[in-house]
C-alpha cells in the first residue's frame, strides 16, 4: 500500500518505543484501510435518505408502537395484538438464542481526563444501569439456561470503569456472559496530492495517528476477537446491536420476537421523531451476520476532512503544522450493513412518543 514510511521508527529510538510502534502496525487491518481509502471521492447515502427512498418497504413489514408501551412491556394479555411476538422473544432469550452488542460512543473524548469527562462517564454509566434494570424487568423470571451473551464495544479508556461497575453490582442479578472489546480504529491518512496517494500520518516517529471508525466497525470487532466463533458455537440465532442512549432498550422480547416471527434477516427500530445516525437499534439473524463476514467490502466508508498535527520525514522527522484540513479519518455507519441484504428481508419497529 506504499506505507513503508511507518517502518522508519523501528530503526531508531529505545526498545520500548520500537515495540510500541510494532504493536500498532500489527493491529492495523490493512485490507480494511485500503477499502476505506478507496471511498475517498465516492458519494455516500445516509440512513434518513435510505428510509425516505424506501418508505413503502419499511411500512409494509413493520409494527408501530409507542415508547411508553415498549418501556412498560405491556403485551402480556393473550388477546394483545403483540402477545405472540412477546412470547417468541421470551423463548429466544430464555434459551439463550439471543445475544446483545452494546456500542458505547465517546467521539468527543480528546484523550485527557477532565472534570467534564467525569460527568460524561457518570451519565453514560447511569444509562448503562437503566438498560440493565430494563432487561431485568422485561425478562421477569427467565427460565435458567445458559447466560445471555453481552458484548460491550467501547473506547479503551472506558472499559475498566464499566467492568468495575458491573462487578460491584453483581451484574444486577442478571445471568450474563460479558465480553468487553476495544472499538475498532483505522489510521488517519493524508489528503492525496499526487499519484502517490494517501499516506498514514504519524503523531511521532513511534505513534500512528488513529481514530475510531464508528458503529459499522462492530462486525470487524466481533471477528477479530473470535466472538463470532463463540456465538455460533453456543447456538445464538439473533444478535441485537445498539447504541447507548436514553431511548435504547436491550434484550426486549417484543423486538426479538418481531424479527424472528417475520423471518427477517435484519430488524430496525426507527424512532419517528429523530433522524440521528448515532442512535441505532438493530437485530441481525446469526445466519445473516455469518454472510456479512464475507461481504465486508459492501460496508460503506465516509472520509471526514480533519486538521491533524503530525510528523513527516525530510531527511529527519519534522513536525507539520496544517493551516487547513490536511487529512481524512474514516467513518462507517452500522446502516451501511443494509447494503448486504435485500429490502424484502427487513422488518421495522417504528417507535413514536
UniProtKB/TrEMBL annotation:
GO function terms (MF aspect): UDP-N-acetylglucosamine diphosphorylase activity
InterPro entries: Nucleotide-diphossugar_trans (IPR029044), UDP-sugar_pyrophosphorylase (IPR039741)
A GO biological-process term: UDP-N-acetylglucosamine biosynthetic process
Signal peptide stretch: none
Protein name from the UniProt record: Uncharacterized protein
Amino acid at each position: 500500500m506504499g506505507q513503508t514510511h511507518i517502518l522508519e521508527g523501528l530503526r531508531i529510538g529505545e526498545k520500548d518505543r520500537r515495540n510500541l510502534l510494532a504493536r500498532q502496525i500489527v493491529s492495523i487491518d490493512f485490507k480494511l484501510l485500503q477499502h476505506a481509502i478507496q471511498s475517498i471521492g465516492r458519494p455516500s447515502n445516509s440512513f434518513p435518505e435510505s428510509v425516505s427512498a424506501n418508505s413503502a418497504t419499511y411500512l409494509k413489514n413493520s409494527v408501530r408502537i409507542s415508547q411508553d408501551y415498549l418501556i412498560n412491556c405491556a403485551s402480556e394479555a393473550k388477546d394483545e395484538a403483540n402477545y405472540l411476538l412477546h412470547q417468541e422473544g421470551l423463548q429466544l432469550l430464555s434459551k439463550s438464542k439471543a445475544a446483545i452488542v452494546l456500542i458505547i460512543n465517546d467521539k468527543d473524548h480528546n484523550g485527557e481526563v477532565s472534570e467534564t469527562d467525569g460527568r460524561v462517564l457518570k451519565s453514560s454509566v447511569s444509562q448503562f444501569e437503566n438498560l440493565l434494570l430494563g432487561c431485568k424487568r422485561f425478562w421477569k423470571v427467565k427460565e435458567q439456561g445458559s447466560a445471555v451473551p453481552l458484548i460491550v464495544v467501547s473506547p479503551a479508556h472506558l472499559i475498566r470503569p464499566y467492568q468495575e461497575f458491573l462487578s460491584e453490582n453483581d451484574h444486577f442479578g442478571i445471568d450474563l456472559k460479558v465480553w468487553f472489546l476495544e472499538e475498532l480504529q483505522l489510521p488517519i491518512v493524508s489528503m492525496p496530492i499526487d499519484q502517490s496517494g494517501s499516506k498514514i500520518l504519524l503523531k511521532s516517529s513511534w505513534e500512528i495517528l488513529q481514530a475510531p471508525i464508528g458503529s459499522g466497525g462492530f462486525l470487524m470487532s466481533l471477528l477479530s476477537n473470535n466472538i463470532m466463533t463463540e456465538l455460533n458455537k453456543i447456538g445464538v440465532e439473533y444478535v441485537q446491536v445498539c447504541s447507548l442512549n436514553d431511548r435504547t432498550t436491550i434484550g426486549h422480547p417484543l423486538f426479538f420476537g418481531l424479527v424472528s416471527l417475520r423471518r427477517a434477516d435484519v430488524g430496525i427500530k426507527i424512532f419517528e421523531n429523530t433522524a440521528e445516525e448515532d442512535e441505532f437499534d438493530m437485530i441481525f439473524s446469526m445466519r445473516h451476520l455469518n454472510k456479512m463476514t464475507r461481504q465486508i467490502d459492501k460496508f460503506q466508508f465516509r472520509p471526514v476532512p480533519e486538521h491533524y498535527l503530525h510528523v513527516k520525514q525530510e531527511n529527519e522527522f519534522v513536525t507539520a503544522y496544517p493551516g487547513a484540513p490536511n487529512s481524512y479519518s474514516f467513518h462507517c455507519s452500522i446502516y451501511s450493513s443494509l447494503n448486504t441484504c435485500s429490502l424484502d428481508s427487513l422488518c421495522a419497529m417504528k417507535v413514536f412518543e
